[in-house]
Design a protein that fits this description.
The complex is a heterodimer of chains A (about 30) and B (about 150). Chain A has 1 helix and 1 strand; from the N terminus they run H-E. With about 30 residues, chain A is of the alpha+beta class. Chain B has one domain (about 5-149): Tetratricopeptide repeat domain (Serine Threonine Protein Phosphatase 5, Tetratricopeptide repeat, Alpha Horseshoe).
Chain lengths: ~30, ~150
């Protein structure tokens, strides 16, 4: 089980508005 | 601490998760971190559906504390949207499920405020003030609630 992070942040923000859903935005230095 | 299953479940159920990596996505990181004023890692922002920041978590946290902070962000989001009952429920969940985290006293405070907002009854604040005499007495939130007793 994992978090399906997306990397197209601008599109995620648009999708959030369309779906009326909050965004978790992670600024990370962890190994990808 | 992302490997924690409770956190994975909570994030997947409640958010559209996005990540920018400081090294592997240097250009994107620079642009987005400047936009959201988040130059440090790890930083987690909880944004509402309009992309407005509602909660910020900076620095590493153990799993329980991170989960509590994530829950706190959603509770604050409901509060900002004046969904008082939903906000109170979410704040109380933190106190009940993760009582030993740093987020718990803050959640206890705001649960009382949310109840007051919903009912207009000052007893909600008094009750919260009294609750702080039983737990989290040494917290900043106890000081803030001390005027309600």
């Amino acid at each position: 089980m994992k978090i399906n992070f997306r990397h197209d942040v601008d599109q995620v923000l648009k999708d959030a508005k369309a779906q009326n859903k909050p965004v978790l935005l992670d600024f990370s230095a962890a190994p990808m | 601490m992302w490997p924690d299953e409770r956190i994975v479940r909570f994030v997947n159920q409640n958010f559209l998760p996005a990540r920018v990596h400081v090294k592997d996505e240097g250009q994107a990181f620079k642009r987005i971190s400047e936009r959201f004023k988040a130059p440090w890692t790890p930083t987690i922002l909880e944004l509402d559906a309009n992309g407005v920041e509602q909660h910020r978590i900076e620095g590493f946290l153990p799993a329980d504390d991170l989960l509590a902070q994530l829950m706190l962000g959603l509770a604050h989001m409901a509060f900002q949207q004046q969904q008082w009952a939903e906000a109170e429920r979410r704040f109380r969940e933190i106190v009940e499920q993760l009582p030993r985290t740093d987020a718990a006293p803050e959640a206890q405070y705001w649960a009382g405020v949310a109840k007051y907002k919903a009912t207009g009854d000052p007893a909600a604040l008094k009750e919260t003030g009294r609750a702080f005499s039983k737990q989290y007495q040494d917290s900043t939130w106890a000081k803030k609630a001390s005027v309600w007793q």
